[in-house]
Specification:
Shape: globular
Strand content: 25-35%
Helix content: 40-55%
Structural class: alpha/beta
Largest sheet: 5 strands, parallel
Distance between the termini: 27 Å
Number of strands: 7
Strand order of the largest sheet: 5-2-1-6-7
């Protein structure tokens, strides 16, 4: 069975893409498995370990605690957002009579997409023109077909 993956994010163009795929690729979808994917950005924020301020010739240092807790909280927020996006997408699919598998992953877009295509044996990726501009560095090397919707 063929697998069609739709890459979505929080933008309106992602939902328009999904609706376009559900409406215009109906023949392909009917004989395929639909996979909806939302990537979670990799947290790259590294707060300072100390903040200093100058008071005349003296400097005062304000130490920060480990940033592990901050990173964990940011990742939890990203996960909640991605799951909300996927839930909305799943409802849209249901409204079109399509049962879709949804999932999210964390990491560098290029690495994650390559991993997904290989592991899940994706045959077709559908993405918006805006996403294509952002992802064009990593998509030419994928081993599946691409549909870019303007």
């Amino acid at each position: 069975m063929k697998k069609v993956m739709v890459i979505i994010d929080e933008s309106n163009s992602s939902y328009e893409l999904l609706i376009w795929v559900l409406s215009n690729l109906k023949d392909i979808i009917d004989s395929s498995k639909v996979v909806i994917f939302a990537i979670q950005p990799q947290n790259s924020f590294t707060p300072p370990t100390a903040l200093s301020s100058s008071v005349g010739f003296a400097q005062i240092f304000y130490p920060f605690s480990s940033n592990a807790e901050l990173m964990r909280l940011a990742q939890e927020k990203n996960t909640k957002i991605a799951l909300g996006i996927l839930e909305k997408a799943k409802k849209l699919c249901g409204n079109h009579g399509v049962k879709a598998e949804t999932f999210t992953d964390i990491g560098d877009v290029k690495d994650v997409i390559h991993k997904i295509v290989q592991e899940r044996k994706i045959n077709l990726i559908a993405l918006s023109d805006q996403q294509n501009r952002n992802l064009k560095k990593c998509l030419p090397t994928t081993e599946c077909s691409l549909v870019v919707v303007k």
